[in-house]
Fold each of these.
Amino acid sequence: MQLKPIFLSLLFLLLSFQSATAQTYEKKIDSLILTGFGNTNEPGGAFLATKKGKVIYRKAFGKANLELDVNMTPDNVFQIGSMTKQFTAVAILMLEQQGKLNVNDPVSKYIKDYPSGDKITIHHLLTHTSGIKDFTKMKALSGIAQKEMKPEMMVDFFKNEPVDFAPGEKFEYNNSGYVVLGYIIELVSGQTYEDFIKKNIFEKAGMSHSYYATDRLLIPKRAYGYHQKEYGFVNKTVISFSVPFSSGSLMSTVDDMLKWQQALNQNMLLNAAETKKAFQKYKLNNGEEFTYGYGWHLKDINGTPDREHGGSVFGFKSMGVYIPSEDIYVIGFSNCDCHSPTEITRNIAKIVLQSGKK
């Protein structure tokens, strides 16, 4: 009969240990984030860390709107910039799974007049090895930045620029390639990129707070974007989201991005064979391997392989890290391009990874 008090004591100790562990996590991660997001009267950010699907950290810092003096919450919606490329890559693989295209198809199969389109493949576009000119590096960009551009107009904007290198010769991060991919998604599916992503990814994964970016429509819990000048903060530069298009025009929340990661893990959107294509390293023409799959950088955290990608668009920065072996996912968003969540997010992943190995 003496077992009951002993059992209760052990249970109490276990719960106390778990609580202490959670508090240690929280203190470590708090101190890490506060180095960059410590001012409560500035634009801020939201961070989420999970392990094996369980949320171990979820907090927001600073202001979602400076003019209205609104505090940031973990529910706020951010522009995610180049993390959009993950969705574009998966959309392409979904179309391949449906038999509507092949990643080894030449671009000319879909865009007849694309210069050297018979030599550039969808695979080259996905892996940033196409050599086509990155439109973000073109001086003429300012002339179209606020114009409403159809995907075909965007492709026409850069397609006749001299190439930087032959397809497959080197890896060089390239936004233009992902704009071409978005146009191909529209041509093959018969849907707009926005509708395709919404119906085939957001709705299937239950991402009810994710959107194709807009400055016109009302977005509940939108975080407003800012730049920092010498004299203080200003509202973000206005651009037409039809310009970054499928290379950087989506919006989401930290919780929805977790749903995205879980949908990929559970093969909810792609079968295992197609999913594998996104997360394997590929080789250049000379046989040299590079550290990018389809829409993700494939690197490591303290020697443990991870999948990661960041984003930067006027007024916002984002970063996501996933460690497959430990099922650790960390996502960080900022609503000022003066505060980068990149290293903080990677360092949070290190803390969670190290704690699991003790």
Amino acid sequence: MAGAESKSFSSPDETREFKGKGRAEVLVVNGRTVSKATFEPGWKWSVNLRPIAQTDSCQVEHFGYVLSGRMRVVMDDGMQFEVGPDDLFALPPGHDAEVIGDETCVLVDFGQVQSYAKPPGP
């Protein structure tokens, strides 16, 4: 069993800047990667992260909790939904997303975020 460990997003292990309008602060605690992502108004995955991911849609599995703001998610099959403050969500690979409105969207993601917002390796 892993030992006790505590970290704070005020001193993240890594900060991954998006191509404008936000960033992901990343912590690794007992081998588990968690991110706190900040998406500014006007952020859209297909504009601000597609150039980093180099995929047609987001291929990361997310499991998160929204702290503030709102986001619309559009799955590759056309299904859409919105998340906002106090919402918990599970999101499989194959989606686009965008901030709705003028408020920054902040969420904590416990999903498969080890490589989220990182350029693909050689």
